[in-house]
Amino acid sequence: MNTNEHVIEVTDLRRVYGGEFEAVRGVTFTVGRGELFALLGTNGAGKTSTVELLEGLAPPAGGQVRILGHDPYTERDAVRPRIGVMLQEGGFSAELTVAETVRMWAGCTSGARPAAEALEMVGLARRSDVRVKQLSGGEKRRLDLALALLGRPEVLFLDEPTTGLDAEGRQETWELVRELREAGTTVLLTTHYLEEAEGLADRLAILHEGRIAASGTPAEVTASQPSRISFELPDGYFLGDLPPLAELGVTGHEAEGRTVRLRTNELQRTATRLLVWAERAGIELRGLDVRSGSLEEAFLRIAREASETGRQTEKDQQTEKERVA
Ligand SMILES: Nc1ncnc2c1ncn2[C@@H]1O[C@H](COP(=O)(O)OP(=O)(O)OP(=O)(O)O)[C@@H](O)[C@H]1O
Predict the structure, then answer these.
(1) Residue-wise pLDDT tens digits, 116-171
(2) Domain regions of the chain by residue span
(3) Which atom of ligand 1 lies nearest, measured to the CA of 45?
(4) What are the CA-CA distances from residue 223 to residues 149, 296, 301 (Å)?
């Protein structure tokens, strides 16, 4: 098996609603066999619109998708048996039991796992005889996942798999996803939880307004962000009392009353010089908080830049959608 094989290939993908509103605007990425790729983005960024095209639920308005070398829309029969899709809201009957639901789906799936095995994998074995309507939100997500795993998929699409799960359930799902990936399953995950992407993804992309605003390994995306130091100066001290900020390696700052926030790309140098200065001056920097750039930081920057430049765009899009509707 060629491990460099691109199981998912997306090139200049576009999706248009109502003939005019462009929700996906030229998205390009690839996912190799056994890789876990996460799509992140603000609300309405275009994650679901993109993933639905990858699942073959609609044809793209432009560009191309290849899943396992096939077009998932026009060659659905070649692709569908080899992929597993966990939808945001599975449409199962509330009156059936968990086991009946899984058996019903297994009847429509070629080479399905035994129902008991799928339920065991997601930790629902003890809930087999419970009616779906009696499951908690988190248990329903696990049932969605069991159904997606039934056909032993080579490619697994997970749309917000841990929404509604408690901390333990989330950890268990992450563990399962890791095991599946280690067994060679290629996974495409959308999520709102940044720590989920950080902990699971080999590579990720942050979507914004239908375009990829940042992509790479979690470490690469994080490294593009400045580190932050914040603290409170004692009474009688002001920002101007610090050594020149350029000498500290500071690239940006804010001061609000006695609270100071510094940004730097050289965390060790800035922190050391700041602490040496404070020590020599006999000053305690209360509430001192030193943190490296994070995925959250990258995400918030993209969202912030969006809200600064995007208000007009949002208005335009709304008008566009109203016209289309
Ligand atoms: N059927 C539709 N008709 C018209 N516009 C749509 C349709 N579906 C989605 N949109 C719009 O397309 C844009 C992208 O939506 P999408 O659901 O793909 O975003 P998302 O990133 O998955 O968002 P969320 O994180 O909120 O689930 C949004 O502006 C949304 O309002």
Answers:
(1) 999 999 889 999 999 999 988 888 888 989 999 999 999 999 988 888 888 888 88
(2) 6-222, 226-291
(3) 21
(4) 35, 12, 13
